Amino acid sequence: MxxxxxxxxxxxxxxxxxxxxxxxxxxxxxxxxxRLLGVSRKQLEDIETTRDYGCHLEVExxxxxxxxxxxxxxxxxxxxxQDLYSDYYTRKRxxxxx
Length: 98
Known about the structure:
Elements: H1 10-26, H2 30-37, H3 41-48, H4 59-69, H5 73-77
């Protein structure tokens, strides 16, 4: 699928990858990771997936990730483009086929 049809912005994809990496580095299984975040195992799979499905990230979830994995939000999001209109901040919208 082309980049223009992706459901998630590059920023969201980076954070989703970071969440998975942090969980694995901490040695948590999907079951334990989901329990700590207060979500189902399926929801954690959706949170961690970077494919064109899954769920978007919520502020409350990011706050829990910060506390559980003892990571700053700056470390979680990484270096950000200074251009507020950069595609890095843009969530692509699907065009309806038809």
